[in-house]
Amino acid sequence: MSTPDFANALIPWFEREARALPWREPETSAWAVLVSEFMLQQTQVDRVLPRWEEWMRRWPTPSALAREEPGEAVRAWDRLGYPRRALWLHRAAVEIAERHDDVVPSDVERLLELTGIGPYTARAVAAFAYGGRHPVVDTNTRRVLARAVHGVAAAGMPSPADLDDMEALLPDDRAAAARFNAAAMELGAIVCTARAPRCGECPIADLCEWRGAGYPDNAPEKRPRQAKFAGSDRQVRGRIMALLRGSAEPVTPERALAAAAEGGVRDPAQPRRAYESLLADGLVVEHEGRSALP
Question: Could you give the number of structural domains in the chain?
Answer without folding.
Answer: 3
